[in-house]
Amino acid sequence: MNESLFTSFITPTMMGVPIVVLIIMFPSILLPSPSRLVDNRLVSIQQWLVRLTSKQMLSIHNHKGQTWALMLMSLILFIGSTNLLGLLPHSFTPTTQLSMNLGMAIPLWAGTVAIGLRYKTKTSLAHFLPQGTPFPLIPMLVIIETISLFIQPMALAVRLTANITAGHLLIHLIGGATLALMSISTITALITFTILVLLTILEFAVALIQAYVFTLLVSLYLHDNT
Amino acid sequence: MASVVPVKEKKLMDVKLGELPSWILMRDFTPKGTAGAFQRGYYRYHNKYVNEKRGGVAMVLAAYMLFNYCPCYKELKHQRLCKYH
Known about the structure:
heterodimer, A: mainly alpha, 7 helices, B: 3 helices, elongated
């Protein structure tokens, strides 16, 4: 275990040079773009996955919402690949930094709201008042809906940060505990190791699920507003 | 020292040291040229390291892990196995 538990989350600098930009750009090397009719294995697998995901995710949108296809697919690819790469030992995950997630969430959410307000002003403003509310409750409900609208980008960013950070922290802690327990009692260490294995499997799932949830929510906000 | 083949068309390994400044100035620094250079570099990297039959992506990931070990080395130095910490 490190001296403080959070040393793995500081932005990495190598001899004073911040290499965090290189680390953010690294997943793009692993995702080559298809250039031929029949590509090599890596590109074909990725192409198939992207088609599968895009069909499933864009099926709920109308024509106007489907212009966001490129944005949503790059979003899910970026978050998924960055989270999965963060599970390698010693690597730095950019999505653990709240600054980056806010930078992803706020513009996308603001874009969906701006589209809604510009093209369908009445409908998007009507979202503030659910159907069938009794008359005296209306002012309070409008206030509550406004607050819930403005909390959407914060929730998107904080959800992603907190999930990934918590997962990494748990892995560090339980790994450290296993190592410390090995000299005391091997059986407890084995049990802790099993917990570690299960946790790692969970982390793989969480990495992908978080990407999916982020993108799904953005697409839902889009659906409301187109 | 002049050479038989004009400097402009040589690859880097064939350029003599005295001709190096003129070779560098000859490269095209327009945005289109720099983009072309990045694209060529990317495909050279890919064809050499990723498109191999023996699992190129795994090699790239292993190199990435080793690369990330360098900034962490300072904090991890005292985690070596020894009797007294």
